[in-house]
Design goal:
single chain, alpha/beta, Rossmann fold, two-stranded antiparallel ribbon, 9 helices
């Protein structure tokens, strides 16, 4: 298959963000755009996207917020190269680092990601339980989706290490894994805000968006959920605005 046939060029945020991505393997979708819309960032913030893939979530934040210092961290060098292309193609400034999120602090520091250096971290970790889901035969898709017993804890630990005190972590995870999220965030994080995401209105949530503050002490807040597919109404209007690049989610407005 030639290079042109192996990739697609897709529009996000109502055409404000165009992303090259492999036709096979893990592809960007609702999760990345919802995650980006949940990130509270301000001009001048240092923002780190862990497990960035082709850069969708981090670049979507940069489209919305001018003047970020953005770093995209990705383990797969091929995806990292596509992320570099996507940043340049959208005239967005981003450093792209090839690094395993579970690496030691010394590897992060060598890559320019020292402890207590980030204002904001966002991440969409692999979250399918390898014991409950059959792994994809596509290696890239399997790496992007399959989680081991310690995956979430390791990713949260990395985020906690590089965040400044008072910095915020925003992540997306399976809704039925909320207990794992709360457990992983119980060490060093507080001021949690949770936003359930329902596939269809009236049905159980399928995702949970979480914002947590390093060293935060405020009580946990559970926000009203949103539905990806809903009858006309406020919930569907919020999602439509987010997908079109015209709005954010409540987590982005602390």
């Amino acid at each position: 298959m030639n290079e042109a046939a192996a990739f697609s060029d897709d529009a996000f945020l109502g055409g404000r963000l165009r992303l090259r991505q492999p036709i096979s393997g893990h592809r960007c979708g609702h999760d990345a755009i919802l995650l980006a819309a949940a990130v509270a960032a301000r001009p001048g913030d240092r923002v780190i996207d862990l497990g960035a893939g082709v850069g969708a979530a981090g670049l979507a934040v940069a489209v919305r917020v001018d003047g970020l210092s953005l770093t995209l961290v990705e383990i797969d060098p091929d995806l990292a190269e596509i992320a570099r292309h996507n940043a340049a193609a959208n005239a967005l400034s981003a450093d792209v680092v090839v690094l395993d999120v579970t690496s030691e602090a010394s590897a992060f520091a060598a890559a320019g990601l020292a402890p207590d250096s980030a204002d904001v971290v966002l991440m969409n970790p692999p979250f399918n339980d390898s014991g409950r889901h059959r792994s994809s035969p596509d290696a890239a898709r399997a790496t992007a989706h399959m989680a081991g017993p310690s995956t979430l804890e390791a990713w949260v630990h990395a985020a906690r290490r590089i965040l400044k005190s008072g910095g915020a972590l925003t992540l997306i995870w399976r809704a039925d894994g909320l207990g794992e999220v709360l457990s992983a965030l119980s060490r060093g994080f507080g001021s949690l805000a949770l936003l359930p995401v329902h596939g269809e209105a009236g049905k159980p949530a399928i995702r949970i968006l979480v914002r947590a503050v390093k060293g935060g002490r405020a009580p946990l807040v559970l926000l009203e959920g949103i539905a990806l597919n809903a009858p006309s109404g406020p919930a569907s209007e919020v999602v439509e605005a987010v997908m079109a690049g015209r709005g954010t989610l409540p987590l982005a407005r602390p």
